[in-house]
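In response to reviewer comment 3 from the previous cycle, which asked for concrete evidence that the modeling workflow produces usable outputs, we include below a single protein chain processed end to end. The sequence was submitted unchanged, and the resulting structure tokens are shown without manual editing.
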Amino acid sequence: MTAKGQTEKWITAGLGVVCVVLVINLVFRGSSRTRPTKPTTPAATAVSSSPGRSAAARAAEDLAEYNPAVRLDEFKAIQARRQAKLDRNPFEFVVREAPPKPEVTAVAAAPQPAAPPSPPPPPLKAVGYTEKGGGVREAIVTFQDEIFVVHEGETFAKRFRVVKLTPAQVEVSDETTQKTIRLPIGG
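The workflow returned the following structure tokens.
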């Protein structure tokens, strides 16, 4: 037999011994975790052997035996209460009728002429904002395919005056309609 074959046999035998030791350890540890038996008293054997006791009563006694905080007398009192009858299914959606609206008689007023629609806002768009050295703020605004670099207080496109510049928006006053337009930067 070769040295390699002999080594493999020793390794296999060693692993087999380790497995046997682990199985024996499990068996002994598992049997020590079983529930210790209680010493039986004559009263306990008389109660447990009574044939008239129901399974529920035995289960309740077992529960009280292992958890002394369980108050079976209070539980039985709660179970003995009468339950309220429900007039409806609580899981069903009920549509309630709305109360009738009071009738209001109003004198018909003469129809007022509709106000003329306001003209659409000019096609202005604030594209960018920069702040140069010395606190000089500039905004880049487009109007009808033209690009303007504007400063606060400056007039551009012969119609608009820049009222206020902030990093978030450009406030422009339209000189022809006397309206103020707020343009968000990049919007």
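Residues 55 and 85 are 30 Å apart (CA to CA). We consider this sufficient to address the reviewer's concern, and the full set will be provided in the supplementary archive.
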